[in-house]
Design a protein that fits this description.
The complex is a heterodimer of chains A (383) and B (516). By secondary structure, chain A is mostly helical. Chain A has a domain at 81-337: ABC transporter involved in vitamin B12 uptake, BtuC (Orthogonal Bundle). Chain A is 69% helix and 1% strand. A two-stranded antiparallel sheet of chain A has the order 1-2. In chain A, strand 1 (211-212) and strand 2 form a beta hairpin. In chain B, the strands form 5 sheets. A 6-stranded mixed β-sheet of chain B has the order 6-7-8-3-9-10, sandwiched between helices. A 6-stranded mixed β-sheet of chain B has the order 16-19-20-13-21-22, with helices on both faces. Chain B has a 4-stranded antiparallel β-sheet with strand order 2-1-4-5, covered by helices on one side. The longest helix of chain B is centred in the middle third of the chain and has 18 residues, at 170-187. Chain B is globular, with a radius of gyration of 25 Å. Classes of the chains: A mainly alpha (383), B alpha/beta (516). Chains A and B meet through helix 8 and helix 9 of A and helix 1, helix 12, helix 13, helix 14 and strand 18 of B.
Chain lengths: 383, 516
């Protein structure tokens, strides 16, 4: 295009950044972020208290129960860790695809397929316990990767947006699960009395992840170690390897990335496969460490919540550890709260409000960042 | 003779120290197509923006039918009967044509009525417009027709078109001018046509005003002028050179008239970059490159002149591996390079300083250090692990050598000034010892000091044996730096000459699309 709406004066250079004001701005920015989190969590708790009060409950009892059920004792902290582990596994995988500029939101489906694949291996193949466990987890990861791979294929072969295909595939995964659970040859429970239920047989004990400790001490699944290990690997891969560097380039500026030799289809697909494999692995972990059998609700929103963990952690694997812990605590506390007789709907509302409070600040910051940078015009056109 | 439909008297507009329009006098009469000819930056667009009320003048008057008016905003301009045919951004893609044309109306939406009006206007001017088509599904030429109908529906007295054919095919351009002719002859309206294309101005206009450097330099009836004369007026004779090395080359006038005295012998190194018969098309089917052939030798600077939008961007994209060819090939040192394969051009030894450094040159959200090393990760990593020390060392060395002013190596690239951003790109591309360096509009948006730095670096690169392709719409820059000059027009090279053989008249003709 030849014309500009208003001809700007040529050759005016913006003043270069000065270090001193830069630090001042960074401190102000940090204060602002912390304040934002404090205010939004306070608002969420306030609204929660109001709702509890309006439904003739006692806000203080509710908040005490939330705390008691999550962080107050080693016993409840064990529940928190158990809930946090699969969330963290999903989140760190999500970080890889989001960093590559691909918005995979189908973790719930990838997790479901992963759990199914793990269950099929564990239930249909006979073998020594530890081997079966490893095989089941690998099958879970492969299943999740396959599911995300469909999105990758659609994206780079047909140009279908990942955000759409991955979301829709969640519902396909649910349908597949319900088909498998109602088909005896697949996962439907065999045996005398339970044959009418839509759930699978329980996993053989050998194919279960070992647990440490007994109540009232922390009783924790070894999945926690797996999750931390994975978070560390991805944290290091993103910040310290050429692979992570190229993924970030691809996500931040695909044109510049192409110039220096990044093949979007290859690297982008790889990022999607990693995120799908993580979600699938989380499915395997849920199955082998907590559920021990597949039910229609095996995914239990862990995929969605893991996605939220990644969002709140602003795609930083190290931060995601803390955020997963917070979300895990909320889940454990919510479970405890429900057991004290508070209606489960109310528990869900309180949980949702706190999650919203955690999601709101990063979303607002992202918006602010985008608005501050209107000159970032997409590539193409002109010429 | 009646008062002109639109008149400017002493119209002046300054942007800071730059005078974009300098006491411009212009009168456009009903019943004529009036062309305004000028290079990029001659002040044409500023003048239009003044007429349309997008900016207000610092001095001078605008008269409509002899009466002095204040055009405060585009709505006022529309009331006064001034209508602009926009090229972009004024149609809403997902809506249909009739929906677009009813936007801004008041009262009940009546599809039948508006569609009938559109068909009437379309028929009267033989414009093929389907009111029920979705704008998204139209070609660029069809969209322009919709824009024209949109203007005609308002029944304007003066019709303003800014570079209307830059997005059109040749056939569509012919059609457009037929419509304009009808608007002028049958309905006695006035048309103001802004253009930098000589043939277009010669064929389509009745009078032509030539602008250069914000001033009107000539006005005459089109029949009394020739392409050569127009080209000379458009480019001017007293082109001033900007930087220090101007002194060495001498003033352009002298250089052009007595070439032997000052122009250096073109170097005769081996052929390094060779582009042969390159063809490429945009996703919307427009031709981007239409058979470009270029050769650049080691140690020479080939200046590619041309009016903006004639394929320069595509050429730079091609050499950045982001454009695929539909025909033709690119060779570096006789080896064919796969066009469009990620990183292929860089791997073959082509460094590019792209025109749009934000879009394709750098990752603005990454740090200065990361941007400096991103082309050569293998040099700063071991077994796939990045070595932070080596990244810092390498980046620090480049910052020192290229004198980049930055708060720290970890500061985000976006925090740098324009000149320093450009230096980061230059440092990165030069540090990999390229065989070919492509510099697209390398000094655009830079201040005088940064321009001098950049031109010196390019000169030094050529002296060191790099084949330099300088793509620029600024003729001064081309003439100052190049050993050889080629001209691109509508996606093909229309002429090539050694710097010492440069004849400004001929150059002007070629830039305006005249075979010479």
């Amino acid at each position: 295009m030849v014309t500009t709406p208003v001809q700007a004066p040529p050759r005016i250079e913006p003043t270069p950044a000065v270090p001193a004001t830069d630090r001042g701005r960074r401190i102000r920015e940090a204060v602002f972020v912390v304040g934002l989190y404090a205010v939004s969590i306070a608002v969420a708790l306030g609204i929660s208290a109001l709702i509890v009060y309006l439904t003739h409950g006692s806000p203080s009892t509710v908040f005490t129960a939330l705390w008691d059920g999550s962080f107050a004792s080693w016993g409840s902290f064990g529940y928190t860790l158990d809930a946090a582990a699969p969330l963290l596994i999903v989140a760190v995988g999500t970080i890889v695809s989001t960093r590559a500029g691909l918005f995979n939101i189908g973790q719930e489906g990838q997790l479901t397929i992963g759990a199914m694949a793990a269950a099929l291996v564990a239930l249909k193949i006979d073998g020594p316990g530890p081997l079966m466990l490893v095989l089941a987890l690998v099958a879970g990861a492969l299943g999740g990767a396959l599911w995300a791979g469909i999105s990758a294929l659609l994206r780079y072969w047909r140009g279908v947006e990942v955000v759409i295909s991955s979301l829709l595939l969640v519902f396909v995964a649910f349908q597949l699960l319900s088909y498998a659970l109602s088909t005896t040859a697949l996962l439907h429970e065999t045996g005398a009395e339970g044959a009418s239920l839509t759930e699978s047989n329980p996993l053989p004990t050998g194919a279960r992840l070992p647990r440490f400790g007994t109540y009232p001490n922390a009783n924790v699944s070894s999945a926690v170690i797996l999750a931390l290990l994975l978070a560390a690997i991805i944290g290091i891969a993103m910040s310290r390897t050429t692979w992570g560097f190229r993924i970030k380039m691809l996500g931040l500026n695909p044109v510049a990335a192409k110039r220096v030799g990044v093949r979007a289809a290859v690297l982008g697909s790889m990022a999607l496969l990693v995120s799908g494999a993580s979600a699938g692995l989380a499915g395997g972990v849920v199955l082998t460490s907590q559920a021990y059998r597949i039910t229609p609700t095996v995914s239990n929103n862990i995929g969605w919540n893991g996605l939220l963990v990644a969002l709140v952690a602003r795609n930083n694997a190290w931060v995601a550890i803390g955020v997963a812990l917070l979300f895990g605590g909320l889940h454990a506390g919510g479970g405890y709260l429900a057991s004290t007789g508070v209606p489960s709907d109310l528990v869900d509302i309180v949980e949702a409000l706190v999650v919203l409070a955690a999601v709101f600040p990063p979303a607002l910051l992202e918006l602010r960042r985008r608005r501050a940078r209107p000159q970032a015009v997409p590539a193409g056109e002109a010429g | 003779m009646t008062a002109p439909a639109l008149e400017a008297r002493g119209l002046t507009k300054r942007f800071g120290p730059v005078v974009a329009c300098d006491a411009v006098d212009l009168s456009v009469h009903a019943g004529e197509i009036h062309g305004i000819l000028g290079q990029n930056g001659a002040g044409k667009s500023t003048l239009m923006n003044l007429f349309l009320g997008l900016i207000s003048p610092d001095a001078g008057d605008i008269l409509v039918k002899g009466e002095r008016v204040h055009v405060t905003d585009p709505f006022r301009a529309a009331e006064l009967g001034l209508a602009m045919v926009h090229q972009h951004f004024s149609l809403i893609g997902p809506l249909t044509v009739w929906e677009n044309l009813t936007l801004g109306d008041h009262g009940r939406i009546d599809e039948k009525r508006i569609s009938r009006k559109i068909r009437e206007v379309a028929e009267r001017y033989s414009l093929d417009v389907d009111p029920r088509a979705r704008v998204d599904s139209l070609t660029t030429g069809q969209r322009q027709r919709v824009e024209i109908v949109k203007c005609l529906l308002r029944d304007p007295d003066v019709f303003i078109l800014d570079e209307p054919t830059s997005v059109l095919t040749a056939a569509e351009s012919v059609e457009l001018f037929a419509v304009l002719r009808r608007v002028v002859r049958d309905e006695h309206r006035a048309v103001l046509l802004i253009s930098h294309k000589l043939d277009e101005v010669l064929h389509a206009t009745d009078r032509v005003t030539i602008m250069r450097g914000g001033r009107v330099v000539a006005e005459r009836p089109t029949v009394d002028t020739t392409a050569a004369e127009l080209a000379r007026e458009m480019i001017g004779r007293e082109v001033s050179l900007r930087s220090m090395s101007a002194a060495a080359v001498g003033y352009l006038e002298a250089a052009a008239d007595e070439p032997v005295a000052v122009a250096p012998e073109p170097p005769v190194g081996p052929m390094v970059l060779s582009i042969r018969d390159a063809h490429a098309v945009a996703p919307d089917g427009r031709k981007l490159l239409d058979g470009v052939s270029l050769q650049v030798r080691a140690g020479e600077i080939l200046g590619l002149a041309g009016v903006e939008g004639n394929g320069q961007k595509a050429l730079s994209d091609l050499l950045s591996s982001v454009l695929e060819l539909t025909g033709g090939l690119v060779e570096v040192e006789g080896q064919r390079v796969h066009a469009g394969r990620p990183g292929a051009m860089a791997a073959a030894g082509i460094g590019v300083i792209p025109e749009d450094r934000h879009v394709s040159g750098c990752v603005v959200d990454m740090s200065v250090a990361e941007n400096l090393v991103m082309n050569d990760l293998h040099l700063v990593s071991h077994n796939g692990m990045l070595q932070r020390r080596r990244i810092r060392d390498r980046a620090a060395e480049m910052v020192r050598e290229f004198d980049i002013t930055t708060a720290s190596l970890d500061a985000p690239y976006r925090s740098l000034s324009g000149g320093n951003q450009q230096r980061v790109v230059l440092a990165r591309e030069l540090s990999r010892s390229p065989l070919v360096l492509v510099a697209a509009q390398p000094t655009r948006g830079l201040d005088v000091g940064a321009i001098e730095y950049m031109t010196n670096r390019l000169r030094a690169a050529a002296n060191a044996g790099v084949a330099v392709l300088l793509i620029s719409t600024e003729l001064e820059e081309i003439l100052e730096l190049s050993d050889r000059v080629a001209v691109i027009h509508r996606g093909r090279i229309v002429g090539e000459m050694a710097r010492r053989d440069v004849d400004l008249d001929r150059l002007g003709l070629m830039m305006g699309g005249q075979a010479a």
